[in-house]
């Protein structure tokens, strides 16, 4: 490699600009450098590599695709593939990576995995990601991807051993990074030491990275499998410093969220965002938890902050969508979710939520499109599967809805809501035994969810097992329930059993609990008075 | 028809004087309002026109359903045939409707502007009933007609398959008609899948996966 003095100066100046994040300056200088004639192809490749790095720093991958089209060096092929991937030229990206014959480098395998995942070649993606993780156990995102794809590996092994791995950019590891010293920054002083125990104890160095990643991985994996209790315990067992980090608190929030303990979820998320106000990840789930809790003002406040700080973060627009969804302004909500999808076309949760809004609008074609898109992006997105099932259920296409609910259950077997819906679906097709089984296991899984018991009561009375039905529904009443429909159901059973006084009393209770149900209850009471032989469908 | 008092009929009840509809504040004696800006979807109503199949009695090439529904009052539908001109919206699923809004502009369309309109509802084209007939004098702006049934001092939405607008006459006896925009609104309904709408949070939070 022979560079002229001018070229050398340009190269150094570019590298300095890049290091100081003066991107446009770096681009200008490296463009000058690449205009200088090169004697060898090696020099040419080197200059292009620098230029490509500048363009990537400028986040213009399309420029990289154009300049590196005919390159041959390994580093440039990788950058070319990366840029192709970012501009969704997946086939070119894969071809370039397979050409570069660097299959023992973790980053190449990881990129290949991402390319395959985008093309829905899930098995290939899994094998690439596993290989990437084996080569370099610090590649946490590869592990995350494996969890998202539903491939659960043994964390105790995968984070321990590294196969012998080549690095594409050996000189660019973080250890080579020169931190800014006080002299660079005038009177810059180190931050005052905090009095938290993490800073005091020497124990903080006792853990090595692989051990930490294995612990985090185990918790993350349990959450991905919706073993929420296990995940919660693992997260709580983390060392204090990590346990109180934004990431871990958000994962705990997710655990509560998946257990349908939304108040708990809100609490954890709030702690997380208080600690790390810069976090945009998981703000979408936080806003959904607020949606469940119907916390209008908190949601509004979160949205306001998000719009102020991270206008272009896709999660911000999911918060906005949830805000409007809670107001039942469905068209505006759809617009917000669509914006989120625009900002990140692979945002499966936004697709699912958009589908929900369309479903509520009875716009079934759009709802189906969004649910299916969500599932194409993330086959483990059970929210979308539930939505698709409910869409078919509403259309009375019970075989299709059964398939969806079953698929959702296989992803999240610990969800009492999915089990309840599965039971309702069985009930609709007359498979009463299966329905009862579903309701009973839902009751076992989640004692706080009253709906399976409610449904079980209705079903049992339909099967003329009225006493059992009554005992189920009345236990619900004793749990201090303020639900008008529960009293209506009990009233209906008493009416059926020929005890109009008791029925009337329950109807009156129902009326008191929800005055809006006036017309329905009035009809029921009239029926009670009108019919001598009390024939009522439960 | 029976449930809609004809325009200008005397009040039967004093309370009617001040009662407005839950839907869009239609005065009880005159079931349409005129606004300068269109009604928009909100927490109580939603645009349902996109769920229907639209048919025009006749149209000039390039001035059809698309122009009628493009959310742009600078384009319009122009009929091209004998009166009465009709716009028929057929909903494949029976749906609750509450308001029917049209935009007409006498200043630009002059004798093309409708002067006498009827709105019909029904389940097939053969059993339509008239909801209201309105005379408009040189109208410009949005005219919002209630499609609802009068009940307890308010207009309540009705379920229907077909909504039809019939233009019976134009200003200055013009032959063809121009309508610039039509919107149909229905009530916003809560999403209901397998459960009734619960009133307590302990129940309703388990009714959906969000």
UniProtKB/TrEMBL annotation, chain A:
Gene Ontology, cellular component aspect: anaphase-promoting complex; cytoplasm
One GO term of the biological process aspect: metaphase/anaphase transition of mitotic cell cycle
Signal peptide, first to last residue: none
Domain of life of the source: Eukaryota
One matching Pfam family: TPR_1
TPR repeats: 106-139, 246-279, 314-347, 382-415, 416-449, 484-517
SUPFAM superfamilies, per database record: TPR-like (SSF48452)
Transmembrane stretches, start-end: none
UniProt keyword annotations, A-Z: TPR repeat
Family that this chain belongs to: Belongs to the APC3/CDC27 family.
Protein name as annotated: Uncharacterized protein
Organism of this sequence: Blepharisma stoltei
Record lineage: Eukaryota, Sar, Alveolata, Ciliophora, Postciliodesmatophora
TrEMBL record, chain B:
Gene3D superfamilies membership: Galactose-binding domain-like
Any one of the GO CC terms: anaphase-promoting complex
Keywords: Cell cycle, Cell division, Mitosis, Ubl conjugation pathway
Source organism superkingdom: Eukaryota
Pfam families (alphabetical): ANAPC10 (PF03256)
SUPFAM superfamilies the UniProt entry points to: Galactose-binding domain-like
InterPro entries: APC10/Doc1, APC_su10/DOC_dom, Galactose-bd-like_sf
Domain DOC: 24-210
GO annotation, biological process: anaphase-promoting complex-dependent catabolic process; cell division; protein K11-linked ubiquitination
Similarity section: Belongs to the APC10 family.
Protein name: Anaphase-promoting complex subunit 10
Species per Swiss-Prot/TrEMBL record: Blepharisma stoltei
